[in-house]
Amino acid sequence: MLCVPLTVTSKKEVSKFLSAANRHADCIELRLDYFRRKPDLKKLVAGCKKPVIVTLRKKSEGGKYGYNAKARLALYSEAIRMQVDYVDIELSSGSLIAGLEKVLAGSRTQLIVSHHDFRSTDRKILSGVYVSMKKIPGAIMKIATHAQQIEDNVVLFELLRQAKKDKREMIGLCMGDVGKVSRILALKQGSLLTYASLGEGSAPGQISLREMKELYRLDVLKQPKVFGLVGNPVEHSTGYLFHNENFAKKRKQALYVNFHATDIRSFLGAFAPYVEGLSVTLPYKETIVECLDKVDKDAAGIGAVNTIVKKSGKLIGYNTDFLGVLAALRKTSLKGKNVLVLGAGGVAKAVCYAVASKGAQITVVNRTHSKAITLADSVGGEALPLAMLVASPEFDVIINCTLLGMAPKISGSPLTKAMLKKISNNRTVVFDTVYTPEHTTLLKCADSLGLQVVSGVHLFNEQAKAQYNHWRNVL
Predict the structure, then answer these.
(1) Which residue of the set 142, 146, 243, 458 is catalytic?
(2) Is the entire prediction scored with pTM above 0.85?
(3) 116 flagged as catalytic
(4) Are strands 225-231 and 254-260 parallel, antiparallel or unpaired?
(5) pLDDT tens figures, 347-375
């Protein structure tokens, strides 16, 4: 179920919210703690045409306005007498739960017992919380914690798996930006519901209902296969838009999410059982090679991986960046041409591998000159110190493989307009592998000089299509 929490209180806003929620949500949570004064519960419930959760959250676990125990018991009891579908109360409310259990006897209303930690996800503490919740007969268990690192999401997945084994209903998710993964994947992992927002969210990291339905298709996907982008950062990538739209177009039971990982080996250890394939971005394209079970010949030759497929439980690495490079430059003759490559990371390796295969003469410039030498030697090219670049001969093709100019720092550029003018001629092609924004500062400078430009969007689209082709066999 996709549940939306009521976080507005004016009559006009409530009316508008309920109208939208009744049309688009599966369940409505009435957050009574958002009302400064006791609300008209009967009128609120009457306005709901979908299953209702009545929640009167206390301040220590995220409630907006504090109600004393007597007021809380009275409102919860009123909701139960009205036969609402669920009431949600914190495990830490103690004796109040016992009071509600008496009112619940013989009622159709189901009890949700919840626990919230807005600071962290502590596996040991949550294990104890789970045991305590399980002792309450028939209660639906809800655990929501703050994810400090991507692996914290898996702690909640494991609890959901345990609940399934114990034949108990559970709601499990992580809060915060890093916890968004759990909100999207919660239903697949067995959570009774996941929360989405209509306007202001009721917890950190809550995703809009529209995005949950239109982008991730959580209202129609049953047991989707999971793919995603792993990197640091991932916030500015548009891959999740491309792949989710592509899955929808091809009617695949699959979705794609962003994984913000701070340790690639730890991430793979935690998430390998939950994914079928991955895209890999900075800074892990090179370091991930040693973490995989197998790497294909092109990726091995490049020394970088941007695509992973799980086959028979094994993680296999590929590189589609070089295919994207060749596709982006398909109108540019490369044989015998002088090509300048700026950068020496994973993307630069794929670029060098691609243009070298077409017979180009390669010059590599990088901030750390030793890395430029290593990369240039691998493709029979030469490395040039940045300070000597303006004294070099003109280049036929200039390719930026650095992050300079990428959002949010869009004013950056690896070359000034004056430098670009010195090392180019009127036939020079300037290709920027950065694709957000599409028209980078470097490309704008090149365009103003009358040079041919190639956007990184071409590279991105072509390498993404090639990634999908690798994943087709496991879809």
Answers:
(1) 142
(2) yes
(3) yes
(4) parallel
(5) 999 999 999 999 999 999 999 999 999 99
